[in-house]
Design goal:
Blueprint (H helix, E strand, L loop, with lengths): L2 E6 L4 H13 L3 E4 L10 H14 L4 E6 L3 H7 L7 E3 L3 H10 L4 E5 L5 H5 L1
Parallel strand pairs: 1-2, 1-3, 3-5, 4-5
Helix pairs in contact: 2-3
Length: about 120
Amino acid sequence: MMRLVIGSDHGGFEAKERLKRFIQGLGHEVADFGCYSTESVDYPDVAQLVGEAVAKGDFQKGFLLDGFGGAVCFVANKIPGVRAVCGYDTFSAKLAAQHDDANILCLGGKTHGELALQE
């Protein structure tokens, strides 16, 4: 079982909820750092919370979601110790984790369908 953290802005909220349920169904612990509805929030706030928690070692890996994954990735990578990557397919996400030691996967709530999120 892994200790994971997840967060999103309003553009990634619905996909975050689906991904969180899927990961929990695999038996992993998932802490949700927000947002908690489709009401507008500032993506840098959530990205910073998730990034700092991963960098401190409170969680093994993290997931950040916004509309397309790029904005939260920019913010997370400003935090020392974070190696965030946008994963647009299974191959790139797995390669980044295995070969580049990525510790946060950034995804797009509007660009990734449910099956892609589960992969």
